Amino acid sequence: MTARPAPRWATLVATFFGAGRMRPGPGTWGSAAAVILWWAISRGIPANLRGIMPALLALAATAIGIPAATRIVRATGIKDPQFVVIDEVAGQLLTLAWAPVTWKSLLLGFILFRGFDIVKPPPIRLLEKLPEGTGIVVDDLGAGLYAWVLMQVALHFGLLAR
Q: What is the pLDDT of residues 86-99, one digit of tens each?
């Protein structure tokens, strides 16, 4: 039996509107797209909401990303397609929650998240074993959480002073 193609909405979400099709390193492009998007939209968000908004956006990316990634997995038969980058978007946004929107914090958040996403320290690698889209997205949320902790430590100790 031949798998049916994934619905267009799932492809758009999973690839984050095509960022996942960029080469080399689609995950890096997905993370960069999330950072640029957050920088752009943060300007229109009241300052008192800028802390929580990336966390809410990460939650939204997770809520729609898991079913989208699941549809892609089922359509392609690939356990974790590289072009699915909505997981990087969710993890990257989580990393940036409650951080100032400055070039230093955006750059540090990007570097920290990509590092943890690539290395996948314990127990993050175990999260990949969850089924379909859940495993794809949740391991990146784990990487985002690790990166968020280090970001908050850097902020607490003033390592990102202007």
A: 999 999 999 999 99
